[in-house]
Structure formats: structure tokens, C-alpha cells
Amino acid sequence: MYTYERLYRLCGENSNESDIAHYLLKNSSSIARLSVKKIKEDLGLSKSSLHRFYNSGGYSSFKNLISILNEEIENKKFIFKYSINYKENYSATPAVTIFNNRQIEIFIKKLSNTKHVVFYGNSFEIFFFKNLCQYLFYCDVDVSFLDIWNLNKVYSILENLKENDIFIMVETSWRIQGIYESSLNQSHIINLSIVNEYPFQKFYIGKADCDQYLNYYNINVPCKDEETASKSLKKLNYDLIKRLKMEVK
């Protein structure tokens, strides 16, 4: 989960890690057949360099990294094909997306009293909040994203957040309970039980059948598939900006 996105961001840096990330994504069509020996020969790197790479990303081994990355790539291919077929067959006008007003009110209140927001989760879905991020920036709120390869750096950022700062996780393909449990057993994603103990504010935007789970406030996104999820997130982005402007007045 989120391996592909973290590698993609890493490609923009100038380092051995960036070279490895670029190599893996460039060879994504044959990722399942890649070996440590092959990468060492092609990139001229030592085995210890590769070990540091996958270890800093939270992966137990090179095989573990490749297995997870391959699964994500295959899933993305499936979603892409599904999306094309869905758009070709979709003709009905989608229902108006209605959000839980109580959940939105809590979120707006917290956003109105913060100076630092960090986003984590599905990078594609977080992109739908770019206008909200811009608006928060204009309101002197620092906005950052945790799609960072080195998990130690991620936890370092989280440790420095203050009580009124906000952690926002976006992932409409999971319920908070499911991804929370999953994070306990997958070392390459942020452990949400650790995040749960920090004093800052925590929100989960996705499928939610309750207003709060442990210390995470939930915002339910009505969606049946990727297409309706995208439309709901776009509307949520618009609604949040509108409500924030009213709050400021």
C-alpha cells in the first residue's frame, strides 16, 4: 500500500535511493522477475545499499518490497481497466453527494484553529484536495504530505506536531477499522496505533460507519466505486472551502 506513490515522489530527488526508485518504476512491467543481482549489475550498487533502501522504506526484505509493489501495480491496472469500462457504460446522472453535517462541522472547527496540516494515504485521492490545500496556504496554514520513502522521517514529522495540528488520512477503499488493523501488521505503512497516541488532531476521510474510531474523527465519503469516490472527493473539497470561508467571516 502506497509503495508506488512513495517511489514516484522519490524519483525527483538526487540520490542512490532516487536511482533505485526510478529503476523499479521503469521496469514495472517485469517487476516480479527482478532480482537483487540484476539491480546491482544495472545500477552498480552494493547489496548493503539495496538493504538500506528497502529497510528505510519499512520493508523486511527485497522480496517483500517487490511482492508488494507488484501487487499494487497489478491492482492499478485492474482499476484503470475498470474505470474505462465504467465510463463507457455509465449514462445515469449520479445522485447528489450528501455528507454528514456533524462530521463536517467538527472538521471545519479543527481546520479553523490549526497552523499545520499533514496529509497521508492515497496520493491520487489526496490530489482532489489541492484547492483546499491552496486555500489553507493562503490562510497561513502549513500543509505537507507524508508520502515519504524513509519512515523514520515520517515519524519524526509526526512527533513534532502540536496539539492543534491535524493529521488527515484519505483512503476511500477502506474503512478506518480495516486499515487501522492492517497498519499494525504492515511495516511499510504508518502504524496508526502509534499515530493514535499522539496529541494532535486525527481525521480519516473514507468509508466510515461511525463518527469516531478511537482518536480518529471520521468523514464518510459516499461511494460505490472509484468513479463515484472521485466525484464525492471533488465535492467535499468544494464544500470544505465554502464552509471555511463562512467560518472566517
Structural overview:
The structure is a single chain. The chain has 249 residues and is of the alpha/beta class. It is 55% helix and 14% strand. It has 12 helices and 6 strands. It has helices at residues 3-10, 16-26, 36-43, 47-56, 62-89, 101-111, 123-126, 130-138, 151-159, 176-185, 192-197, 226-248; strands spanning 116-121, 142-145, 166-175, 201-207, 212-213, 216-220. The chain has a 6-stranded mixed sheet with strand order 2-1-3-4-6-5. A hairpin with a 2-residue loop joins β5 and β6. α6 crosses α12 (226-248) and α8 (130-138) runs parallel beside α12 (226-248). The longest helix is centred in the N-terminal third of the chain and has 28 residues, at 62-89. The radius of gyration is 19 Å and the shape is elongated. The chain starts with a helix and ends with a helix.
Quick one: biggest sheet? 6 strands, mixed
Strand order of the largest sheet: 2-1-3-4-6-5
Number of helices: 12
Spatial separation of the terminal alpha carbons: 40 Å
What are the key terms here?
single chain, 249 residues, 55% helix, elongated
Question: What's the arrangement of secondary structure elements?
Answer:
Blueprint: H1 3-10, H2 16-26, H3 36-43, H4 47-56, H5 62-89, H6 101-111, E1 116-121, H7 123-126, H8 130-138, E2 142-145, H9 151-159, E3 166-175, H10 176-185, H11 192-197, E4 201-207, E5 212-213, E6 216-220, H12 226-248
Parallel strand pairs: 1-2, 1-3, 3-4, 4-6
Antiparallel strand pairs: 5-6
